[in-house]
What does this fold into?
Amino acid sequence: MEWLISLATAGIIIVVSIAVYGVVKSVITRLIEKRMAAGNAPQPRVDTLRTLVTSLIGYVIFFIALVAVLEKFDVDTTGIIAGAGILGLAIGFGAQGLVSDVVTGFFVLLENQVNVGEYVTINNFSGVVEETGLRVIKVRGFNGDLHFIPNREIGSLTNHSRGNMQALVDFTIAYKENVDQAIRVLQEGCDRIGDKMSEIIEGPNVLGVQSVGSSDVVIRVLAKTKNGEQWKVERELRKELKKALDEAGINLP
It folds into this structure.
């Protein structure tokens, strides 16, 4: 009779464990998808994070259920629990770097710090993200180099692809030139460029004299641009404003 009661209890434990896992999995999935959707995270990243979290939770729930079922059949589970603890300790000591990579990578994914295709700077390595994972982030530099950066080594991460950017250009004119005239010519050129370039959100505007040297004067121009278009705008500003200065007879040093 006791054997039947233990068997029935074990069945109830298994059913409850499956139900708890299903509920927790559903809640975790909704939370992750909601959090990642807010940051426009790509679907592969959402799938990776969801699979990782639900798997870890499943292992914990079913391990507890296994121990509870064995105890109902008078099996001494002390050795199992101790063995699991020793195994976890051994893994922790033997794979500290890997564990650190995974933990850091998990939070990078969870917090949506970076997505594939974004321009970032990580530990002084700048480039476009080609792949994000639980162990490494792959960043393609502008010279073609592919940087493999372990997640545990991420000391600083700057994401340049979130929000609008700025195009900043300095023009150096000869010391003897009329500064007011140069600023007027540059601003007129900026107005023309702003009218024809859809990449520019605000400006360009001449901020004024940035610095004065012994033989030159530096005038700064600034524009707010769409993300990733700042370099194109800077090149166009240099080209067109150089023409405007030449046409006005304003010499560069």
The beta strands are 119-122, 125-132, 136-140, 146-150, 157-159, 165-174, 200-212, 216-225. The chain has a mean pLDDT of 76.
